[in-house]
Amino acid sequence: MVEAEPHQDPGPCVLYIRCGGTDPATLAALAGLVGRFTPVVRAEPPDAVVADVRSAVSFYGLLPEQLALMISTRASALYDVSLTIGVAGSRTVAAMAACDVLVGRIRAVDSDPRAVADFLRAKPVAALPGITAEAVRTLAVAGLYTVGEVAATPLPEIQAVLGADTGRGVWERAHGLDPAPITPEHPPGSLAADRLFTADATDPTDQGALSRAVLELGLGLGDRLRSTGRTATGLTLTVRLAGGSSVSRSRSLPEPTSDPGELAEAAYAMHEALGRHGAPVRAVALRAEGLSAADLRRARCVPVGAGRGRAVLPSTFADPPAPGPAQEERRLSS
Length: 334
Prior knowledge:
The structure is a single chain. By secondary structure, this protein is an alpha+beta fold. The chain has 3 domains: 119 residues, Reverse transcriptase/Diguanylate cyclase domain (Alpha-Beta Plaits); 63 residues, DNA polymerase, domain 1; 121 residues, Dna Ligase, domain 1 (2-Layer Sandwich), CATH 3.30.1490. Helix content is 38%, strand content 22%. It has a 6-stranded mixed β-sheet with strand order 1-6-5-2-4-3. The protein starts with a strand and ends with a helix. The C terminus is likely disordered.
C-alpha cells in the first residue's frame, strides 16, 4: 500500500528501501534488482538500498511511487522479503519516510519545500540520518529537540553549538537537503533478469510458460551484456515456488561469453536439469555471474540482438519442419 502526501511534481526522485533482517547476499541481490531500473543505486549495509530513479520515471512514464511498488512486488516474489520504501526528493527525507511507515508500505513525500517542511517539522532531532547521539544531547542542552526547531534556527547559531562542519550537516538535513549526491557503486559482478507469473506455471511441457521465460531471459541477458561490453563466466537459475520455497542450479560456462544464443542454451539446460516442480511456480530469475570487460581481441563484431538464432528451442515450441519430398508427394496424392 502506498501512503503519499499530495503529489504534483515528482522532482528528483529518490527511493530509500529498507529490508530489515536480510543477509548480505540478499541485500546485494536487491541492489541488483533496483539496478535494473536505474544505474544510480547503492547498497547501504546492513539493511538498506538507496537509488535515484529520475531517469527511470521519465523512461517508464510512471510516478516514483508506482516504480517503488514494482520493485517491492518483484522483491517479494523473488526473494520472499517485505520492503519498506520511502520516496522523496532527497535521500534524507526518503530515509526518514521509510522509517515513518509500517513495514511493507511505501511512503511518498512531495518534493515541494512546504511539504518537506511539514513532514519534518515535528520529527525528533534523533530521527535525522547520520546525526550522532552526542549531537542530539548537545542540541537538547541548547533547547532544540525537533527538526523544525533546528531548521528555524540560523545556521551560524547551529554551528556555534555543534561546530562548523557538523552544524552545517545537521542544519542542511533539517531542511531536507543532502550533503552529497548519491554515487553508484562500482559495476556489479553479476547481472540478473526475472519473470513473474500472474498464473501458476506448473507444467512447462504442456503450458510452456516457464520454458519460454527461461529462454527469453537468457537471450535478454546476452543483449544486455553486449550493450555494456561485458561477458559472463557463469549462470544461476532460480525458480521460486508457491509457499516461498525455491530451487536453483548454477553452471560455469566453457568460456567468457555474451552470446545470447549460448546463454539461452545454457539456461534451458539448467531448467531441464531441475525437472518438474512439485508446486506452482511464482517467478523465475536468471543471473549472469563473473562479469568482466569483453576481450575485444577475441570478441566478434556482432550487433546486439544477433546470435539469437543459435538458441535451441525445445520441440514443443519449435516450428514444424518443412515437408520432405515423400510428405509432399503424399499430400498431393491425397
